[in-house]
Structure formats: C-alpha cells, structure tokens
Amino acid sequence: MATEVKVPVLPESVSDATIASWHKKVGDAVKRDENLLDLETDKVVLEVPAPVDGVLKEIKFKEGDTVTSQQLLAIIEEGAVTAAPPAKEAPAAGAQQVQPKAEAAKAASAAPASTTPAPVASGTDALPPGARFTAVTQGIDPAQVEGTGRRGAVTKEDLVNYAKSGGAGKAAGARPEERVPMTRIRKRIAERLMQSKESIAMLTSFNEVNLSKVAAARKEIGEEFQKTHGVKLGFMSFFAKAVANALKKYPIINASVDGDDIIYHGYADISIAVSTDKGLVTPVLRNVERMSFADIEKAIGDYAVKAREGKLTLEDLQGGTFTITNGGTFGSLMSTPIVNPPQSAILGMHAIKERPIAENGQVVVAPMMYIAISYDHRIIDGKDAVLFLVDIKNQLENPSRILFDL
Q1: pLDDT per residue over 65-119, tens digit each?
Q2: Residue 377 among the catalytic residues
Q3: I need a surface site. Which of 248, 289, 303, 327 has the fewest CB within 10 A?
Q4: Which residue of the set 269, 381, 384, 405 is catalytic?
Q5: Cα 72 from chain centroid?
Q6: Residues 53, 277, 302, 377: which is the catalytic one?
Q7: Superfamily classification of domain 185-403
Q8: Is 381 considered catalytic here?
Q9: What is the pTM of this model?
Q10: Residue 346 forms beta bridges with which residues?
C-alpha cells in the first residue's frame, strides 16, 4: 500500500520551507519514525520522519526546492522490501561488440581523475551532493574534517573552511574562494536585524555589576544544589529571575508595539539567545516569574541540547516578551545588543572580569560585569530603561532581593 509523506503543518508565521537535505533515496528501505529529510524554515530545521516501514518509492522534490504546508513530498510503499538489483539481460545479436564499448566509454568518462585519492571517493558517499563535489574537487578526505552539521555531519561549509585553513588536500599556494548561499535561517536573521534597525528608535544604556555575592552564593550552595536538582547553578538563573522581578516594576520594558497600540504583557516570557552552527536562535522560557532557579537551569540546559542537535521546534522560539543575550560566553567585554521585534528591549550580559573598585573607602578586586539594555525609545523613556537596569544591578549585588522579590 502506498503511503504519502507530506510537509508538516506550518505555523501561520511560516509560509514555506526549503528542503535542506534528503537522508534517503528512491529504492532505500525506511523504518517508521526514521528521519527522511530536513526542512529548513526561517526559524528552525524540521525533521520529517517516515510514517511507516517500507521502501521509498518516489521523491517529489529535490534538495533546495521550496515547499508549503501539507504539500506531497514522497511516497513510501508500505511493507515492501528492497529488491536485489536485476540481472543484466544478454545483449541482442549484433550489439555485442557495440554495447561493451559504450559502457566502457561511459564508465571512463564517469571515473574520477587519477589524481583523486581513493579514500576521498569512498568517503564521500554519505555526503550531500554539494559537499561531495567540494570534497572531490578539493581532494579532501571527509574523515579528516570535523563536522558542524546535524549530529556532527560534514557540510559543504565545513569542507570549504577546511580547505581555506590549509587542511590536507589543499593545493600548495592555492587561494580558494567559493560562493555559498545563505541558509534560510541566516537570511531570516539578516532580515530581522535590518527590520530592527530600520523600524525601531533604538538606544542603549550601560551599567556595571559586582557579582561577588552571586559568585559566593554559587560557591556556597552550588554542590548541594546540583545534588538536589541534578543541574548546575549558573549565572543565567540569577539574571533571569532578576529580570522577571524588574519587569513587574517597569511593565513598559515588557511591552510591545502593535501599530498605534502598546501591548502590556502580564507575564515574563524571556527569550534566551543561544548560538548554533546555523546562527543565533532565541528559545523562550515561559512565565519566568513563576519558575524556580532549578526550573530555569533545567530549561536552559534542555534548550542548549536541542539547539546543538537541531531539535528546536517553532513553538520553542515563538512568543518571547524580552530577551537576554550573553556575549560574555565568547569573551565580549561590552556590546550594544539589537532589539528583537516585536519586543521592545533586550539585556546584554558580558564577560566577568576581576577589576579594582572602590568599596567602603577601600580598593578591592571584584568580579565585575558590564551590562547593557537596548530599548525602543518610541515607547520606553530613558528614565525607565536606566531604572530597570539599576534595579537588576541592585538585585544581583544583593541576591536576597531576588529571593524575596524586592
């Protein structure tokens, strides 16, 4: 029985998707729930699993094609098994001498040049077409390249970067260049950043925070916290709770613009910026004002794993009211984060550096962090933005204020 494989129902905010890669070809045996292909949308990469056991009978679209919700992608012959390749029929009389020559010529034309290393040819079988072509033409053994794709797969970009960095297989003295199209996610990120710059009157304010008491609290209870909850106590839970508390006091920071209206949100759905090989994504922690420190740390850990494995869903990324981004993970000392519309503000965390500061008339060395808030000046006045940032500073420098919602 033939079973249809269709594009999953896409949310209203996503009009179409691009076929990123097929993991099976026509004639391959497939098992129920085995991933057939990856669909790339503006926000995430979606896996399309096989609905039944059988054989992939027909593929309707190739890699790079654009498809829409519920469009037919492939047909699986349910319950079928892969047939052995049919034996070649004996050539007709009179064609015995011609056919072998034709086949030999075809084989010769298809054979790789003698300069291509044998391991490259055999090692490229599992690569997508574009990556396979790059590996063969550049003389790269994929086994020597660290993959950054889904589940560690070697991508075309990995091979190009490997060649540019002087890896094995690069011709001596070569200066390779290659034009690589943006992924759907990268294009969407570019569009939203330009939208933010063009439609928002954005301003950034800075402050600094002494994290010595937060660091002391983590050191004092960190081991017991991990034993009790099965997750490490990080800095992000302190920041997320401080932000949720401050948003209650300054609701305009948590608001969004819709035409000529301002929408106030009575909850703190905080987007946490996470870097992936496809670009920056912002999964949402919902109702942070109700979450415990352990809840926050577990949720962030789960999102980090899902992001690395390419398993974030559209629901994970939709609906945030405020964003926290941590450039300090990569060593950034200070930056001006860009607001993610329709949100109206974003908090930027940065690297923690020990610096001498004045405290009670004495010079002491403390773990200091610069923090920044970028905000939409159309609805948020500078006074509210600065007071919001000062409130976060006061909570983090006195963590008991976070616990007692002060």
Answers
A1: 888 888 899 999 887 666 555 555 544 444 444 444 444 444 444 444 434 443 4
A2: yes
A3: 248
A4: 381
A5: 27
A6: 377
A7: Chloramphenicol acetyltransferase-like domain (3.30.559.10)
A8: yes
A9: 0.64
A10: 323, 374
